[in-house]
Amino acid sequence: MTLRPHVVAVLALSGVVAFDLTMPCEVFGRAEVPGGARPYEVRVCGETRSVDAGAFQLALRWGLADLARAHTVIVPGVMDLTRPFSPAVLEALRTAARRRARVASICSGAFVLAEAGLLDGLRVTTHWVAAGLLARRYPTLIVDPNVLFVDNGRILTSAGGAAGMDLCLHMLRRDHGAAAAAHASRLAVVPLERSGGQAQYIVHEPPTSTSSLAPLLEWMNRHLRDDLTLPTLARRARMSTRTLSRRFREQTGTTPLKWVLTARIARAQQLLESTTLSLEEIAGDVGFAAASTLRNRFAQVMGTSPMTYRKLFRSGGEARAQH
C-alpha cells in the first residue's frame, strides 16, 4: 500500500529570501527513508502565482488554500520587514495551525508567524541582526538570539542563513530518524549537527557612549591588557566607584566590568580571525590572566571555543596555536 506523502508547504512571499526558500525544498524534496521511498511532497505556495525573489521571479503552482491544508508549513525569511503582511497570508497560517499542522520559520520568517499570533508567549529565535527588533515589535515573545533553532513541538523557529538547514534536518530526524537525516545531510554536504549556536557568528561590540564617559571608554579600549578593576576605572574617571557604576549603567546600559569583558572578547575575535598568535599570546594581549581564562570566558559569551571560532573565521593561513 502506498503511503500518502506528508505535504510540506513552503510560503513564498514577495521579497522572499531565496536561500531560505530553497533549503526546505532541497532537504524535504530529496529526503528518503529505508527502501528508497520519498516521504514528503514539497509545494511552494503563495498568495499570487508570481513572486519577486530579488534576483529572479518565481512562478508558483500552489496557493494559500494548499498551504492551509499542508501537514508542515515553513515560512522563509523576507528581505523587507517594514512591509505589512497580507491578512490572507496570516489567516492561512492560522488555519494551518488550527488544523494542527507543524509550522516553522527560517530567519526573519519568525516575524510573519509572530504577526499571525502563532508565537505568543513562546521562546523563539531569528537572525541575530533582527532579534532585537523582533523582541521590541512583539514583546510577548521570549527571543533567544544565541541558538540555531528552537523546537516548541508544533511551532519551530530558526536563526538566519544556514541555520534553516539545521532546522530542516532536525525536523526530518524527528519524523524519520537519524538515518534519513544523515542521508539528507550527506546529500547537502553539511554536518548533521553543528556545535555551538548562533552566538559564535555575532560581532560582540561593547556598548558605546557619546556623552561624558566617551573618553574613558576609549582609554579602556586601548588598555584592555591592564588590570581594569572598578577602583582603577573610578580613579581614571575622577569619581567614586558608586558614581561611576551609576553613570556607566545610565550611559551604556551595562556595568564597567561587563563592558570590559565584552571589549576583551571582541578584541580576541579580531586576533583569532586575523593573526596566528597562540591563545596564550591573545589572552595576554586582551587582558586575561591565562589561556584557560580566555577559553572559559569566550565559551560563555560566544557559545563555542576560541579554536573552533578560529577555524570558522580565520581570514587566511594556518594558525600555529594548538591549545
| Structural class by sheet pairing and helices | alpha/beta
- Choose one word for the global shape: elongated
From the alpha carbons, calculate the radius of gyration and give it in angstroms.
23 Å
The largest sheet has its strands arranged as: 2-1-5-6-10-9
* Secondary-structure element order, N to C: EHEEEHEHEHEHEEEHHHHHHHH
Portion in beta strands: 5-15%
Give me the count of strands. 10
**What does the average pLDDT come to?**
85
- Helix fraction, binned, reads 40-55%
What is the straight-line distance between the termini? 57 Å
Number of helices: 13
Which residues form runs of ≥5 with pLDDT under 50?
315-323
How does the major sheet shape up?
A: 6 strands, mixed
Walk me through the structure.
The protein has about 325 residues and is of the alpha/beta class. About 45% of the residues lie in helices and about 10% in strands. It contains 13 helices and 10 strands. The protein has helices spanning about 20-30, 65-70, 85-100, 110-115, 130-135, 165-190, 215-220, 230-235, 240-250, 255-275, 280-285, 290-300, 305-315; strands spanning about 5-10, 40-45, 50, 55-60, 70-75, 100-105, 125, 140-145, 150, 155-160. The strands form 3 sheets. Strands 2-1-5-6-10-9 form a 6-stranded mixed beta sheet, sandwiched between helices. Helix 1 (about 20-30) crosses helix 6, helix 10 packs across helix 12 (about 290-300) and helix 11 (about 280-285) crosses helix 12 (about 290-300). The longest helix has 26 residues, at about 165-190. Mean pLDDT is about 85; it is low at about 315-323.
